[in-house]
Inverse folding.
């Protein structure tokens, strides 16, 4: 792994690092709500780079990790915004997912990357959808993992998973370690993943050391609410797309992944029966194989 670097992109500074041969075809990983790039595990990234023969790049989205924190934009009332979104009322937010997609495209500009494979998880998948809508020429392929079109008629999260969205991270390390384990017990769903449970404390310490930004997470969540239903626009996209979704996802139910695959022309879907809203170690092999096969099929198609 290279040391973290910083790049100016779309008016913000983004922290990034990379894995594999810099001369190989680039693959950009986009992480989800409130999670920094280290949520893409280093070992996962290294294995993906080797197995797919790509140059894997991960980065901190705006308002998380070491990237620019937009504290001057204030802290939105996300519960009020969610209610307005459900009622289809107008409201303003600090920024949208399209702005975050522009960040990713701007990072590619700064790194001198004309086109890349894009892989997004959860909110990162929605950001990838915005790229497919607004920057399709920059994408060799797209892999959307545990994400949604934003269609308000889709099944909602379980109450337990929804509660995790509105539970702020505690400010002390000891409390945060307990909070982190609780969150991932819920998000991983009903199946047991002992390898990940054993790593929760270590991962919590790493996330805490990198820095918590609850206000930034609120601004990202507001961006999700404001971005609405992407399904009509996705029907007119033509980026080769693979959808990966877990049948046991408590936060973004599998119906949402099916909806993404149905919305994007010619998209393929890979459903993993035991996967919840997480990327557990035991499921890395099918995840890496699926992404690798998809990128191999599409590296020369655009």
């Amino acid at each position: 792994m290279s040391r973290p670097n910083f790049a100016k992109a779309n008016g913000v500074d983004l922290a990034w690092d990379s894995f594999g041969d810099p001369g190989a075809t680039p693959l950009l990983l986009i992480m989800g709500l409130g999670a920094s790039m280290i949520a893409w595990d280093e070992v996962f990234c290294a294995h993906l780079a080797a197995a797919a023969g790509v140059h894997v790049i991960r980065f901190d989205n705006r308002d998380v990790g070491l990237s620019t924190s937009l504290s001057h934009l204030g802290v939105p009332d996300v519960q009020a915004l969610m209610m307005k979104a459900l009622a289809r009322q107008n409201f303003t937010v600090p920024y949208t997912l399209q702005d975050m997609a522009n960040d990713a495209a701007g990072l590619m500009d700064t790194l001198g990357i004309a086109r890349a494979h894009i892989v997004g998880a959860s909110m990162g998948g929605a950001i990838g959808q915005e790229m497919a809508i607004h920057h399709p020429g920059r994408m060799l392929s797209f892999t959307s993992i545990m994400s949604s079109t934003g269609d308000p008629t889709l099944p909602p999260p379980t109450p337990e998973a929804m509660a995790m969205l509105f539970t702020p991270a505690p400010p002390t390390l000891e409390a945060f370690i307990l909070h982190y384990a609780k969150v991932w017990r819920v998000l991983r769903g009903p199946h047991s993943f002992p390898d990940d449970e054993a790593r929760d404390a270590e991962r919590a310490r790493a996330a805490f050391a990198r820095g918590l930004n609850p206000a930034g997470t609120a601004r990202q969540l507001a961006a999700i609410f404001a971005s609405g239903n992407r399904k009509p626009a996705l029907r007119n996209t033509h980026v080769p797309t693979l959808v990966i979704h877990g049948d046991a996802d408590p936060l973004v139910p599998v119906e949402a992944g099916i909806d993404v695959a149905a919305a994007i022309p010619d998209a393929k879907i890979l459903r993993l029966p035991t996967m919840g809203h997480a990327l557990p170690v035991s499921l890395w092999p099918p995840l890496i194989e699926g992404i690798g096969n998809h990128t191999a099929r599409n590296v020369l198609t655009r």
User: Anything to note?
Assistant: The beta strands are 5-9, 12-19, 25-30, 54-59, 116-121, 139-145, 241-246, 268-272. The mean pLDDT is 95. DSSP finds eleven helices and eight strands in the chain. The chain has one domain: 5-155+215-298.
